[in-house]
């Protein structure tokens, strides 16, 4: 028999201070639409739909021969919809279940229960060729470009890898294809033979974005994709992400803990706490008229820089300095 430990310490009260994040300039006005979700896409405009997603993990040390297998519910009955060309931001404190939700949506992990649909097609248990196709339709950009890009591979190999996985040939040849994508994300196309460590953090993240674009995805899941970058570089990458969306017409599921960043890119916001979505709505409605106490506390919180990110940032800087790479 399997017991569920639920959550022992739900993150219900973010650190608060007098600094408000609500003063950031609005650049992307959201239009409320009459969908099934608050402020969400109209029924005919839904690209991705997740219904009642649950993810339980085995609690370490609870699976012994004579003990009951306890589980921890990281995602607890999450439903969401993302419209065509829409950006849904998932916000919440560390441990609230954002990344696990992203991984469920991208089918990097299987749900304990619930379902995921892309364009009305149930992809929850898809395998084989259909899973290959789904993996092309849904691409991920991760937080740390250095750990998500193979350090031994050239930019060309990294950017063409998703196509190779799909069994497709890069149109126009691997080099031309790579160089074209490098240009589109603001990289020097002459550097196609370099390795990730020869680029700065912002440039490396652009390689990750180019890799995601290579297969013309319909949904790009950004899991804290700009969180490890310095603020000025962060702004440039956000602008890039927005431009690419305008040009390509794909949708974003944008995971972030930093509400100032979310305000710059989201059409709609879903707030997670303790594995659940506690509030959801058009961006301006959530930022200006939060209803849930948790959202109000998040909005009043100083965007905390997590110690591990600060350490990673320092390590990256040192690495770049050692290699004398121009940022
Ligand atoms: N593979 C796993 N095995 C066990 N527990 C896990 C696993 N993945 C995540 N968890 C737990 O599930 C909870 C939610 O984690 P998740 O990473 O989804 O949260 P998050 O909101 O994205 O936080 P963060 O921003 O810190 O990544 C956390 O308590 C985490 O420790």
Automatic annotation (TrEMBL):
The keyword Nucleotide-binding applies. GO terms for biological process: peptide transport; transmembrane transport. SUPFAM superfamilies: P-loop containing nucleoside triphosphate hydrolases. Keywords: ATP-binding, Nucleotide-binding, Transport. The keyword Zinc does not apply. Gene3D superfamilies: P-loop containing nucleotide triphosphate hydrolases. InterPro entries: AAA+_ATPase (IPR003593), ABC_transp_ATP-bind (IPR050319), ABC_transporter-like_ATP-bd (IPR003439), ABC_transporter-like_CS (IPR017871), Oligopep_ABC_C (IPR013563), P-loop_NTPase (IPR027417). Residues 1-36 have a biased composition (Low complexity). GO terms for molecular function: ATP binding; ATP hydrolysis activity. Residues 48-299 form the ABC transporter domain. Residues 1-45 are annotated as: Disordered. Belongs to the ABC transporter superfamily. This is Peptide/nickel transport system ATP-binding protein. It comes from Terracoccus luteus.
